[in-house]
Amino acid sequence: MNDADVPADATDRVLLQRMSTGDRTALATLYRSYHGRLCRFLSRLTRRPDIIEEVINDCFWIAWQKAGDFRGDSRVSTWIMGIAYRCGLKALRQHGEEAVEDSIPEDRTPADDPDEDRELRDWLSKGLERLSTDQRIVVELVYGEGHTLDDVATIMQCPVGTVKARLFHARVKLRNVLPALAEGSITVKERNDQVP
Amino acid sequence: MLATYFGQDCPRAWEMMPWVLQNRATKKQADWLASHLAQCEACRTEFAQQQRLQQAMSLPSEVEVDAEAGLQRLLGRLDTPAAEEPKRTRAGGWLTRALVAAILIQAIGIGALGLKMWSTDQTASYRTLSQEEPAPATSGTLRVVPDASMTLGDWNALLHSLQLQVVGGPNDVGAYTLAPVSAKSIKPNTLQQLRAARGIRLAEPVTGAP
Ligand SMILES: [Zn+2]
């Protein structure tokens, strides 16, 4: 566990406990504290703000109902991301193609985005569009959210080996697709790259 | 360079990179990776790429979603239980409307026969209400059916305010058996308060002597 995880999780647990007694202020606090990361996580599934909000609200609706059932065998963040993941997949099924369409007009992109960030986003999007949904989710959870392989397996409800494989293949793809930083870097053939 | 990349340490270095970036690796592992990177250009390039990936993934979402507006809509949704969520009636949740109807019909029948009947009857027609009774009913024990729209939070808050705890149930028609937290917490008007509480469908004494 990362050092930063412990106090954050303790706070989340208190909020969840208060939610289980009907405390809406605790719900609002937890909602605000997760909103940013859930938005980013879900933006890897869909670009539609209305669908993202719908999924976040479905997720917290369930968290509100089930706060009293939280058994504490994972971190609260892992629990919430797992709910959001399942709600997100469900929303994708319900909305179909429209969820995948890129609905952000150019002028909607944040105006205060520095050039450097813009460049970084463009660089990243070139890579992410080549990944499968599952691979994108694993990359987001590991690099964006800082989750461990075990966490990701819990969130996606699959074996750790599956997560490892998804991460590995995502990295190989990204490495081959993304323009490298240094001059003369090599392209790795996937079959040569198997980690034992 | 190419040769080094396929050296035996490279796969290990490759696998370790995300966890070193997350500060989850031990100092020993991080030191080992640093020494490998110092002598392996290919892994150095990969690590730089990994750092850039982490940096890019950490940028806030560019899809703008208003948190406060969303929260207000969520809170509004909590207040409109009539707009029933399909997921609310899944197995393991609160009882379905059909079961509520079933128990209300039974309750009317029981009411006609008298409350004593409810707590002692062992015949098949009332078995669903009294089955799996955990212990002989003690003074102040109640049987309660919460409404399907009642949240777990509201349920907990109600039990807490009335100093009650769940000692049994739900049975298969959704009836919970409640008892005072302690003998001292028995209050004469608990039953009336339960019946008046929002979200309580049915509340009856088990012993008939609140
Ligand atoms: Zn190497």
Automatic annotation (TrEMBL), chain A:
Residue ranges constituting the RNA polymerase sigma factor 70 region 4 type domain according to the UniProt record: 123-174
What is a single Pfam family found in this protein's UniProt entry?
Sigma70_r4_2
Task: Give UniProt keywords alphabetically.
Answer: DNA-directed RNA polymerase, Sigma factor, Transcription, Transcription regulation
* Any GO CC annotation of this UniProt entry: DNA-directed RNA polymerase complex
Gene3D superfamilies for the chain? 1.10.1740.10, Winged helix-like DNA-binding domain superfamily/Winged helix DNA-binding domain (1.10.10.10)
Q: Is this entry keyworded Ribonucleoprotein?
A: no
Indicate the family of this protein.
Answer: Belongs to the sigma-70 factor family. ECF subfamily.
Region Disordered, annotated ranges: 98-118
Q: What is this protein called?
A: DNA-directed RNA polymerase sigma-70 factor
Domain RNA polymerase sigma-70 region residues, every copy: 30-96
Does this UniProt record's set of keywords contain Transcription regulation? yes
